[in-house]
UniProtKB/TrEMBL annotation:
Residues 1-142 form the HTH marR-type domain. This is MarR family transcriptional regulator. The keyword Transferase does not apply. It comes from Paenibacillus oenotherae. PROSITE patterns: HTH_MARR_2 (PS50995).
Length: 153
C-alpha cells in the first residue's frame, strides 16, 4: 500500500509540475503582460472595495511583491495609458493610482477572455467533472494552507 501511495504521490507531483510549467499563465491578454494585468486587476479590486486611493504599497502587499517591482510595472502601465497617478491631497509625498478608462477596458476585456477560456474548460470537462474539479481544487488549497513548510518540520 505504501508503494502504491508513493507512486500516486509521484504521479500527482509530476502532473502538478507540468501544469505549473505550462505557458498559459504567461500569455499576453489584450496586449498586456500577465504581471501588468495582475496589477490592473489589483487596482480595480481595491477600488471596488470602496478604496478610492490606491498606493504602490497597497498593491505590493496585496500581490506579495516588492514595492520596486510594482513601481516598474506602474511606470509601464502609466506609459501605456492604463493607469493614472496623482498626488495625495493630504500627503504630497504619497502617489496614488487609479485606472484610466483604457485600463478599465483592458481589465474588462481580459476578464471576458478568461471567462471564455474557463467556459471552454467547463465544456471540455462537462458540468459534473467541473464541479468535482472545483471541489478537489478547494481541498488541495485547504491541505496546502494547513501543512507546515518542510523547513519547519
Amino acid at each position: 500500500m505504501v508503494n502504491e501511495t508513493s507512486s500516486i504521490a509521484k504521479e500527482m507531483a509530476e502532473a502538478m509540475e507540468m501544469f505549473f510549467k505550462m505557458d498559459w499563465r504567461k500569455r499576453r491578454a489584450c496586449g498586456t503582460r500577465p504581471s501588468e494585468l495582475r496589477v490592473l486587476f489589483c487596482i480595480q479590486s481595491l477600488c471596488n472595495q470602496g478604496r478610492h486611493e490606491v498606493s504602490i504599497s497597497d498593491i505590493s502587499k496585496r500581490l506579495c511583491v516588492t514595492s520596486p517591482t510594482v513601481t516598474q510595472l506602474i511606470k509601464q502601465l502609466i506609459k501605456a495609458g492604463y493607469v493614472q497617478s496623482y498626488d495625495d491631497a493630504n500627503d504630497k509625498r504619497m502617489t496614488l493610482l487609479r485606472l484610466t478608462s483604457s485600463g478599465e477596458a483592458v481589465v474588462k476585456q481580459a476578464l471576458e477572455q478568461h471567462l471564455l477560456h474557463m467556459g471552454g474548460l467547463v465544456d471540455r470537462l462537462g458540468e459534473e467533472q467541473s464541479e468535482a474539479f472545483i471541489a478537489l481544487l478547494r481541498q488541495v488549497m485547504l491541505y496546502f494552507s494547513e501543512i507546515k513548510p518542510l523547513d519547519e518540520e
